[in-house]
Amino acid sequence: MAEIDQENHLRKLLIERKYLVVVDDVWQREAWESLKRAFPDGKNGSRVIITTRKEDVAKRADNRGFVHKLHFLCQEESWDLFCRKLADVRAMIPAMESLASDMVEKCRGLPHAIVVLSGLLLHQKGLNEWQKVKDCLWKNIIEDKSIEISNILSLSFNDLSVALKQCFLYIGISPEDQVIDAEDIIRLWMAKGFIIPRGEERMEDVAEDSLNE
């Protein structure tokens, strides 16, 4: 279906309805200008919510709209999020907790950075491994600024095995925002020879573990 046909089809579906639509992660104002024609204003209380990282996109989306800025987490909220994502906080000795607290603080309340950091540390066992993570992150911090999320992601990727790196990069060939079925990607990994046999386990189970990791 052509883009203009999709627009008309959606407009017809919504024209006599009261609706709430969430348009997630809009990067360009032009993209929203093109899309908003599909949402009829029936004066019936319908609403469209846009999420974006770009302030100019939010401000210019609609002169009748309201821009709600999400605030960063405070240190207490950041620590709570980190602990929830880490899963087994009881395994942290005081020295590890101190290291983690320093790293969480440098995330400056950015939830995505905190979640990625907790995922990275989850696979690092012991004080020495956590210290190595902190040392690597601190190398890229200039003038006491925050940790760049790209640095955490880079460390997370480098921490993967060669086989998992291949699996991860293979997913990257899919178009952005495409929904990928887990069973489909597992079959493709196996067909490409990315999954390494592990004892007598079924290859599908090994592949599923790789996907979870």
Automatic annotation (TrEMBL):
The Disease resistance protein winged helix domain extends over 175-213
Q: Domain named NB-ARC: which ranges?
A: 5-86
Q: Which Pfam families match?
A: NB-ARC, WHD_DRP
Is ATP-binding tagged as a keyword?
yes
Q: Which UniProt keywords apply?
A: ATP-binding, Coiled coil, Cytoplasm, Leucine-rich repeat, Membrane, Nucleotide-binding, Plant defense
Any one GO BP annotation for this protein: defense response to other organism
Describe its membrane topology: Peripheral membrane protein
GO molecular function term, any single one = ADP binding
As for subcellular location, the record says: Cytoplasm; Membrane
Q: Does the keyword Cytoplasm apply?
A: yes
A GO cellular component entry from the record: cytoplasm
PANTHER family the UniProt entry points to? AAA+ ATPASE DOMAIN-CONTAINING PROTEIN, DISEASE RESISTANCE PROTEIN RP
* Record's protein name: Uncharacterized protein
